[in-house]
Amino acid sequence: MIGTIVHYDSALQAIYDGYLEAKDKDEEYTWDVIFHRVLEDGKPLWESYFNKKKINQIRKDYENVGQLHKFAQEYMNDARDLATAKFKIDKLQHHDYQFVSSNKQAYIRDNDKIIPVNVYIGVDLAYESNAHNDFQVIMVTAVDSEKNFYILDYYHEHLPLYEMPQKIFEYAKMYSPVRRVNVEHVGAQGIIKDSVNKMGGFDRKMAPGIARGVRPPNGIKKEDRLESALCPIVNRGKLFHRKIHQEIVDEMFHFPKGKNDDLLDGLWYSVVNARSPLSKSFSSDKFDVEKSDRRKKSKKSIVRSWITGQRT
Fold it and tell me: Which pLDDT does position 11 carry in this prediction?
């Protein structure tokens, strides 16, 4: 198979990523891979035909017409120009942790370790939801003591606005305990507040802060708001997502010129006031959900306001 990588989700990119992973683990790989760029370690690959001056001129020509990513694709065998991309999506981390909760504390776990986390939900509402409008978004994010952020789940569908309160509470119950639910403070948020006021006290406590809303900072464009808050997390390798969450990677890849940024907006609402837990990760063999519940059942619970999510 011979080709040029023009999209990060292409078959060629998957083959190359698999090859690098196998090489890193010193394992055999299905494909024999030969990979080259027009410039390697700053030196032209084929200097007699593409010398450095010619390569720089080609790059400049692409840059002048706002198509620098095309140079990265066609000449550097890279689906994105990492030098100019806002989100360095090669810094994204994958995770396959299972969510569990015990004694009103959230954890994520695998076979080896348990990580205490605080869970936050960000909600980006769309006034109208059909094939031609924005999506409704519910973003469930966890943060650990090292300020690593984990996308646990998200909802990204066209749904009538009046059905969103029920959907939000479904996710809040699924990932309880939730420290706070941040809903965009716009006119549509009033529908959420009205629905919450009709609920019983127990249901309200499942989604603290949902009725209060979060207002984006005045005078700052959405693009700048998303970039300033999310790029540092992504570009420092502090954001973990599941491999099935390709839609949010797509939005990062095309940012800020993408057609949609609903998921990035939902992610912003979920991390904007997130606080890390104090507890560090520990070995999974020291964790037993049932025993932990029985041992700590008599301890006094922390009471949080369903309006603000703060301790009372």
Answer: 86
Range of the domain at 110: 91-296
Crossing angle of helices 262-271 and 246-254, in 10° steps, is 100
Averaged pLDDT for residues 230-257: 90
Find all residues with CB under 8 Å of 122, minimum gap 6, and list them: 137, 138, 139, 141, 182, 265, 266, 267, 268, 269, 270, 271, 272
DSSP string across 110-144: -SSEEEEEEEEEEEE--SS-STTSPPEEEEEEEE-
Residue 108, classed as helix, strand or coil, is strand
| pLDDT reported for residue 299 | 46
pLDDT of residue 296: 43
pLDDT score at 161: 84
Does 303 map to a domain? no
Residues 64 and 198 in one domain: no
**Closest to 266 (Cα-Cα) out of 128, 118, 127, 140:** 140
Contacts of residue 170, defined as CB under 8 A and 6 or more positions apart, other chains included, come to: none
Q: Is 255 a member of any domain?
A: yes
Residue 248 shares a structural domain with residue 275: yes
- 71-85, 121-135, 156-170, 199-213: which is most confident: 156-170
Domain count, the chain: 2
Question: Which domain CATH number covers 186?
Answer: 3.30.420.240
Cis peptide bond N-terminal to 256, omega within 30: yes
**How do strand 282-283 and strand 105-109 relate by DSSP bridges?**
unpaired
Higher-confidence position of 126 and 270: 270
Who wins on pLDDT, 232 or 189? 232
How many helices (H) does the chain have, and how many strands (E)?
10, 11
